[in-house]
Amino acid sequence: xxxxxxxxxxxxxxxxxxxxxxxxxxxxxxxxxxxxxxxxxxxxxxxxxxxxxxxxxxxxxxxxxxxxxxxxxxxxxxxxxxxxxxxxxxxxxxxxxxxxxxxxxxxxxxxxxxxxxxxxxxxxxxxxxxxxxxxxxxxxxxxxxxxxxxxxxxxxxxxxxxxxxxxxxxxxxxxxxxxxxxxxxxxxxxxxxxxxxxxxxxxxxxxxxxxxxxxxxxxxxxxxxxxxxxxxxxxxxxxxxxxxxxxxxxxxxxxxxxxxxxxxxxxxxxxxxx
Length: 274
Known about the structure:
- By secondary structure, this protein is α/β, with parallel strands linked by helices.
- It has helices spanning 2-7, 20-28, 55-65, 83-92, 135-147, 157-185, 191-195, 199-204, 211-220, 222-245, 248-265, and strands at residues 14-16, 34-36, 48-51, 74-77, 98-103, 124-129, 151-154.
- The strands form 2 sheets. Strands 3-4-5-6-7 form a 5-stranded mixed beta sheet, sandwiched between helices. A two-stranded parallel ribbon has the order 1-2.
- Helix 3 runs parallel beside helix 4 (83-92).
- The longest helix has 29 residues, at 157-185.
- The model has no long low-confidence stretch (mean pLDDT 95).
């Protein structure tokens, strides 16, 4: 909403939030023109509606909006799981009104306080249209995504959910498990807690994300998460065996292949060799 206000200053923005404080803040800072305490007929005038709640709640709001929106309204979402909402859209007969979306942006911080109008700038923005929505509306929505500074990627919702299971959902599980490992194994002197810095801090930052949101995500994308969790466990088993056997070659290969691939993923992080 903040990004839309910055790029399209004359647009009318109507907002709803279950608690009142963010609604008041959005009105006071000029982001919203109208703030309502419930999802009602007020949203009938909308050309676009963005669903920005936990993924299972987005489906609930679809059911409410079905009998409210005008015929040419486009509903989109920002959820990190697309399969569940696409299936709900089909069941509700809203396929011509829906374009799924997922901006790969944000941080472990939650609430309106941490929102800013550059949040999605230079971030990849997955777009998952249905087969029934018009090409013209998809193009229009893509222009809006580009307008707020994001980089659109048109992808099927099935492929999207596999991708995010590996690069987003599984890493959150791993980060949380590492934090819990330290919590359960630290001594009374809390040396682990005291000395946790550097790599541990970087790899576990996302464990501070919203538990409610990530519970919802795990349940909504459980099939893809379970597939890759099983494969990840296999990698850990391989390394456990290599360490147990003192297999220097296997251990070195494990780290070397990971380094080679990650260096290609984020070349800008590499310092210039002198």
